[in-house]
Design brief:
single chain; about 300 residues; mainly beta; 6-stranded antiparallel beta sheet; 5-stranded mixed beta sheet; globular; binds fe (ii) ion
Length: about 300
């Protein structure tokens, strides 16, 4: 059984960042202060448009199959430090979180300490009644593993389609939890993303603002890479892949990022929400950005957290 995070007051270390975080240049005169935006552009991989409307979802399990169904497209990526964002509208935020864990290399330390921190932290942000930490991924400059390398295509981590799945049943079975018989529950899935070892000078994470995402542009696909979690076997459905989603390009979609994220900063972004009228989720990808030659590699830890809300 996965540890369940009990309701407690959120840690003061998890207070939202109150300053704008903008880079301020030296003043050139009394009172003069210039705010520099690091908005940029980059090539990202999008699902080929012909998959929208096809009856069978595409399948991605490695770099080759990813290239086969996607194409590169240059997009603007906005620096949104200091802008008004929240998890129910834009679907993502930046806040502070300084872990007590000195190293993220030992799985048992991450599971024993970081999961507890993150579970409590997301509970404080979301107001959930119950929180389940699903798992984590540490990503580094080592590109040998499809899952451990930087994410290189615009994707969601779950299917955004209302496919009739009984989310409560999935949550109870996946986390070995009894949610009781007399309560109706809604659920939201959140990701946290935090640089480790160094600030994220390279390969930052970009997310699409959920307010600019048209659900009609989101297409299901089969994720068949490492740690795929197939649903119970169903006739005609793969038994080695989990159903997820990815958008096709639409010029309305707005990519956002937080430049130079520090190791005491954390991005939280929604991946699924059963509650109506809330941000459904933020497709995301890493991207290449100019950095000094001696800038250290990006290393990061991400955690998937499921929140349950009693209604
Ligand atoms: Fe992802």
């Amino acid at each position: 059984m996965l540890p369940q995070i009990e309701r407690r007051v959120s840690s003061p270390r998890c207070e939202p960042v109150r300053s704008s975080g903008r880079i301020r240049l030296a003043a050139f005169g009394r009172g003069a202060e210039k705010i520099v935006s690091r908005s940029t552009s980059a090539e990202v991989r999008y699902l080929n448009k012909e998959w929208k409307g096809r009856p069978e979802p595409p399948r991605i399990g490695d770099a080759e199959s990813r290239r086969a169904v996607t194409h590169k497209r240059r997009v603007a990526i906005d620096d949104v430090r200091g802008q008004a964002l929240d998890l129910d509208t834009s679907g993502f935020i930046l806040t502070r979180h300084e872990s007590t864990l000195p190293s993220f290399r030992k799985r048992e330390d991450v599971v024993g300490i970081y999961y507890e921190e993150i579970g409590r932290f997301v509970r404080g942000l979301s107001g959930a009644d119950r929180v389940f930490v699903e798992g984590h991924t540490v990503r580094t400059e080592d590109a040998r593993g499809f899952n451990a390398a930087y994410a290189r295509y615009v994707h969601c981590d779950y299917s955004l389609a209302d496919n009739g799945a009984d989310r409560r049943d999935i949550v109870e079975r996946r986390y070995d939890q009894d949610l009781g018989s007399g309560t109706r529950w809604e659920f939201a899935w959140y990701n946290t993303w935090q640089p480790i070892d160094f600030p994220a000078h390279r390969n930052p994470l970009a997310v699409i603002d959920a307010r600019t995402l048209d659900r009609d542009d989101v297409v299901d696909y089969w994720y068949a890479g490492p740690r795929a979690r197939p649903l119970p076997a169903r006739p005609g459905k793969p038994t080695d892949a989990s159903l997820s989603s990815m958008p096709v390009f639409n010029p309305r979609q707005r990519f956002c990022y937080f430049p130079q994220m520090r190791t005491d900063e954390i991005m939280v972004f929604k991946q699924l929400d059963t509650r109506p009228d809330r941000a459904p989720g933020c497709p995301h990808t890493s991207f290449d950005i100019d950095a000094p030659p001696d800038a250290p590699p990006r290393r990061s830890i991400e955690v998937r957290v499921v929140c349950a809300f009693a209604c």
